[in-house]
Amino acid sequence: MGQADFAAQGWSALPTRAFSAAIGPIWARGEPGAREVCLACSDAVANDHMGMVHGGALMTFADIALGLAVVDAIGAPNCSTAQLHYNFAAGVKVGSLLVCAPEVVRRTRRMVFTRGLFRVGEETVGSADAIFNVFEPRAG
């Protein structure tokens, strides 16, 4: 699927840079706090010879997807991952569209607890829970 195809389905590319950009474009649709996040699983995230997506890429996507829910909840990107647990339920083939609808489970002043199911089509291929630290915004 190309950019025009994603746009036609309501997806917008998220701004990514540095390490987050390594797995490819990340797409989101919906309103903040109720978004879906998507990764088009290309050869760039393949487990070299198997035609399957590398587990590290799945966990990176999980971190980004759940982190987006935190940014939506606190209104700024002033957070870092304290803990991430990913359950691999099924393999993900290269060429798949991996989608997550992340949610905030609980929020305190300094921490946000999140979870999400990861699916390809109607099949759940993974689940994740994460805790994020929230920092005070930097001055100036």
UniProtKB/TrEMBL annotation:
The protein, known as: Acyl-coenzyme A thioesterase PaaI-like protein
Pfam family, one: 4HBT
UniProt superkingdom: Bacteria
InterPro entries: HotDog_dom_sf, Thioestr_dom
Species of origin: Novosphingobium chloroacetimidivorans
Molecular function GO labels: thiolester hydrolase activity
Ranges of residues in domain Thioesterase: 50-125
